[in-house]
């Protein structure tokens, strides 16, 4: 039965934005949706005006609505979002090829979130994305602030990739990788590059990135004439794949979460960059939180 679309009757404190004497700090509904991995704030505004969001069993269509996450129930597409104070979850997955990093329920391919077998995981999402064909480490969480700190280039959490390509890569080509390779929409920027192994038939190269752009690694090596045979992410900050088989996952330990946040704090020395890259003739694209693209097929893909 279709829900009746009626305007929500909100308490006075939600209309004027001022909490009452017994209320905690209120949160804008669009921000709350973003922090829970539903969509970007802009897309959340669209969902609200389209009548897709319910607060305490009433459809809310007014932009700027504020809620009390500790007392009010927010529901979208049949999913009740976690209340403030719910236990935060952190997982490390060694993603296999053929698995996608999305929360979209319409997705027919295997999703990374479905591989996490913890029955208490609740609604989690991936921090950043790996391409379907890329293997390796992915973090999943329900903690929006943690996800923001781990993935935003401002905080400088480094990711290490191991790339195996067809052919023998030369020192001249390694130098090009270190200096940056110009693609159609940006120049690559690998922090570190070194050759792990090479023969006449294939080469294995290690790369360190702070931020991966759309299929960046594959595109760079294709530009140099080296088709990628295998690409895997082997490190995220202080986390390594050692001992975690492909397709397996484990919860993060408290000290691992703390160390990642410490690394983020140590690296956080500059202002948030307003632009990450610009396509010729296009508007500048601003960086967005990782949960902004969850559930959207338009989200940027990772290497």
Keywords:
303 residues, Structural Genomics Hypothetical 15.5 Kd Protein In mrcA-pckA Intergenic Region, Chain A, Alpha-Beta Plaits, Pseudouridine synthase, four-stranded antiparallel sheet
What does this protein look like?
The structure is a single chain. With about 300 residues, this protein is an alpha+beta fold. The chain has 7 helices and 15 strands. It has 3 domains: about 10-80, Roll (Structural Genomics Hypothetical 15.5 Kd Protein In mrcA-pckA Intergenic Region, Chain A); about 90-155 and about 250-295, Alpha-Beta Plaits, CATH 3.30.70; about 155-240, Pseudouridine synthase (2-Layer Sandwich), CATH 3.30.2350. Helix content is about 20%, strand content about 20%. Strands 7, 8, 9, 10, 11, 12, 13, 14 and 15 form a 9-stranded mixed β-sheet that branches. Strands 3-2-5-6 form a 4-stranded antiparallel β-sheet, with no helix packed on it. A two-stranded antiparallel ribbon has the order 1-4. It is elongated and about 65 Å long. The N and C termini lie far apart (about 45 Å). The model is unreliable at about 1-25 and about 270-300 (pLDDT under 50).
